[in-house]
Write a structure and sequence with these properties.
Layout: H1 18-25, H2 34-73, H3 79-100, H4 106-134, H5 141-153, H6 159-179, H7 184-226, H8 237-254, E1 258-265, H9 268-275, H10 277-293, E2 301-306, E3 309-315, H11 319-335, E4 351-358, H12 366-382, E5 388-391
Parallel strand pairs: 4-5
Antiparallel strand pairs: 1-3, 1-4, 2-3
């Protein structure tokens, strides 16, 4: 097993980081928390997508070559039943797995597809090996050994999925050997070879996956440390810009919605003037902590946008979901009960929140989403502060670069 070396970062630097918590608790069973697991598998799939396509294409080609070769060495009377297994289970499984990698939503479907198709393919190979032996051709056994190794390292199965698929194939082979009356010495030897293949392949796969997961966590943690706001310990503007561009591109490609929340502490200058800048810093920290606690998914990003402004990126989030997060954040800041005698809203510290919610459209950019959320924020302030406003349909007519505020709480139409 790989050595678990954690970055020597103080816990206080990332008080709300799921990544730091996962590194501290470990992952002996090769599994993170639900949301972090999803983020890891998404990143892994994107990184390995080309390799998966190449590996599956090679596997398909090799299976076709093996089929042609077996026709030369196998008797004609064995071909009918073997073709039934080949063309009803083995080849369709590989073709389907390869097809899923070209789907727009392949990152969601491939892990599920391969976990179902791999046992089918391996089971079919085990059946073909038994059929080959029963027709006087024991050389096909090597194909099962190679397929088991491939299941561990080449087709994107997680460790426990690969173990399950291989043990199922081993069970099918053992049962088939008993059915066709394979000599006990030969059957025992073959089973021993398959068990050794699984032990060696499993040990390699476990170490590779453990190392890969640990390095992924360390990489994310180092990025978080480098892109933290020094005062509030949440993401800084640099990371916000990077994450918004990344999520925008992904949501545009998959035509999924994205929400952006911009929040501003109400009457913060008056707060600083009355209570002092040190109290203002403590207020910023408190609001940032509430904001960080308002999200539930590692894919969401909370950041200090600048001064007393904060931002939250919510990819693949519905309109109602974004409103729920914004309203919960608003209520929890108010519930802090931080006195603010000079507030124009209520005598405690509050925030106003603007929400932009769109499905990225052609010829649009993240700057337009920022502008939409900013316009919604000003609408919340003009309406009396300490509230949430959401804009969505206005995005289609918004001309990026300038908008005009109208008095009386009406967010004006954009103009150039």
């Amino acid at each position: 097993m790989s050595r678990n070396t954690e970055p020597q970062a103080p816990d206080a630097a990332l008080p709300e980081s799921p990544v730091a918590a996962q590194l501290r608790s470990g992952f002996r069973w090769l599994r993170f928390g639900a949301e972090l697991e999803g983020a890891y598998r998404t990143d892994w799939y994107r990184e390995r997508l080309v390799y998966l396509r190449v590996n599956l294409s090679i596997a398909l080609l090799l299976f076709l070559i093996f089929i042609l070769a077996s026709r030369r060495v196998m008797s004609a009377d064995s071909q009918a039943v073997m073709n039934l297994v080949r063309y009803s289970a083995l080849i369709p499984s590989v073709v389907l797995a390869l097809t899923v990698t070209f789907l727009k939503d392949g990152r969601r479907w491939y892990p599920r597809a391969i976990s179902l198709l791999a046992p089918v393919a391996l089971g079919a190979i085990a059946v073909l090996v038994i059929l080959g032996w029963s027709h006087g051709q024991p050389l096909l056994f090597s194909a099962l050994v190679l397929a088991m190794i491939a299941a561990y390292v080449l087709i994107g199965l997680q460790f426990f999925g690969a173990v399950t698929a291989n043990l199922l194939a081993l069970a099918i082979f053992t049962y088939g050997g008993l059915v066709v009356a394979m000599p006990s010495e030969e059957l025992a030897y073959n089973v021993l070879v398959l068990l050794a293949t699984n032990v060696i392949g499993g040990a390699v796969a476990y170490n590779v996956e453990h190392t890969r997961r640990h390095e992924w966590l360390e990489g994310r943690l180092l990025v978080e440390l480098a892109e933290l706001d020094g005062l509030t310990a949440i993401a800084n503007r640099r990371r916000f810009d990077r994450e918004l561009t990344r999520h925008w591109t992904q949501c545009a490609r998959e035509q999924r919605p994205i929400a952006l929340l911009l929040a501003d502490i109400d009457c913060f200058k008056a707060y600083n003037d009355l209570y002092g800048h040190q109290a203002g810093d403590e207020a910023l920290k408190a609001v940032a902590k509430v904001l960080a606690g308002s999200v539930r998914r590692p894919v969401d990003t909370v950041a200090r946008y600048g001064g007393e402004e904060f931002a939250m990126i919510l990819p693949e989030t519905t309109r109602d979901g974004a409103l729920h997060v914004a309203e919960r954040f608003l209520e929890e800041v108010r519930a802090l009960g931080i006195p603010h005698a000079h507030s124009s809203a209520v005598p405690v510290l509050t925030v106003s929140v603007g929400v932009g919610h769109v499905v990225p459209a052609p010829r649009r950019s993240p700057a337009g989403l920022i502008q939409l959320a900013d316009q919604a924020l000003y609408a919340a302030k003009d309406a009396g502060r300490d509230q949430v406003r959401l804009l969505a349909s206005e995005y289609e007519h918004l001309q990026t670069g300038y908008f005009r505020r109208q008095p009386g709480g009406n967010d004006g139409a954009a103009s150039q």
